């Protein structure tokens, strides 16, 4: 398996030329990198005007590996070829490196780039990417991979320290300024040049106040004082190392790389709906930074949020009065770490009464609104306290808990709520304080604990009786002045006291069923199944030419091909007993086929868009400006892997992809709309009338300005 690394953008608050002077001091050897023994210049080229300088070095490394492994490999040192291409005119340095030793067994490639900061020409940016592919190594492939990753990670951490070390060395020598390259024709005379050098040596480089470093975040670095964060989700934006530390916390180089790579994948496949970096990081942490697992769960969650309009729940859903009166929970200040604090008086809550009066779905939706509010409060506290806060603390008071709370439908509702929250809000619970646990608590814990993730379970602290008042208790986590009054504190807590729900508010099973159906069918999206040989098709009739057909769909399972056709005559309605057009109903959604098998492409209908292959997990938005009235057919078809030529072996990627397809079935979730050309504003992502469920976890959406006579597909 190929291991990849991608660094964030690291910023030096020094001009490019001074950074280059510091960088050159790393050669021929660097005492700060013990494994870097020596280097020899192999090739060197310098342009006549001096703007281009390319130097190729052979670097000798002493890898920290077991002596036995070195003996088996038959080497004491490992050699790398490094090519540095300096362009003084463009003020860039590109570094390419690859291993010379064992190049047939192990392939290591690295690319680094120093460049001028796009918004402050006196600052320098650095980016780094690398890949490791171990094909074979005497049966020690796993060991070699661990050693290589450990050594590389260690060097990444030292990279910025080394440059800053040589910058200090230059400053001690009185060199704080290096003039920029100028063309020979414009070069000053020798006397002027000598004078400039003397003046330059006397200049002190103006470095911004170090205190500003704390406030960098992702603001434009030329204006760190008060500029807002850049929109997350634009294709060209990149994560800054200072922003990561300020808003996301201390991450290892490999964790930073996982975040950047998953973020890039989402930008390529989910344009307009990129979650915020904090939310991406939560899914990575929940899966121990396994990118494939995090990507799978995040895509499922994004689809779920979109289908049920969860992003708009705080703005569009008002909790019933019964919940406001009898749900004994609410937000209450913050803990000592700055996390928002949620207080739940579960022992005082009539779970049976709430379920009988509201139903399971209303309770679930209320819990979702609490979690959405928690995400919002985490963002606010991050700004208030000046450090990353990505989770909240929950204080659960169990005084009053008894067998009444173990009512089977109530426990069933609780288990479902836990399941949904675990899947869609990972790593949002920082700590759970359970106070005054009675004797019946172990019974409840036995029922719910199997549904709670191991990482979450480790955050639970349980206190029986009044133990929370002693050492290691509540005061270790919450300031004395905000301990609620019902826990013998001095702070008035506005959380409802709960109590029994009047039976007059109970509703019948039929009423609750209808209400539950209404709650979770409030979605503009439809689901469909696509089978091999049975595409899903929908019909759109256009009366006025130049109308705009818009679409927004997610590929939930498998790979599909998306097509758009036009016909002057309407297809026959689907009939289950028809040999031509027909429909299939499946648990995952409907399957409808409209194009009759006797129809011929080019005679009965025509293709108006080029086929678009969409991979599993991708989200696609697009529009088509119609040229003619008539009937348009949108088709989602099963994508089969192309057959390989007889003389060619199948590609590894194709084989792996085919193995991952467990059945000849795909699933899509889609929404379409037709609007007049006068109302069309440019792209699907800019349509207000479509009410598209683009994720509000994103700070902004990406839109395209193409809206001409053919079509636009944004992916």
TrEMBL record:
Transmembrane segments: none annotated. Residues 214-235 are annotated as: Disordered. The lineage of its organism: Eukaryota, Metazoa, Chordata, Craniata, Vertebrata. It comes from Vicugna pacos. Residues 319-495 form the CRAL-TRIO domain. InterPro entries: CRAL-TRIO_dom (IPR001251), CRAL-TRIO_dom_sf (IPR036865), CRAL/TRIO_N_dom (IPR011074), CRAL/TRIO_N_dom_sf (IPR036273), GOLD_dom (IPR009038), GOLD_dom_sf (IPR036598), PRELI/MSF1_dom (IPR006797), SEC14/CRAL-TRIO_domain (IPR051064). Residues 3-175 form the PRELI/MSF1 domain. It comes from the Eukaryota. This is SEC14-like protein 1 isoform X4. Residues 521-674 form the GOLD domain. Coiled coil: none annotated.
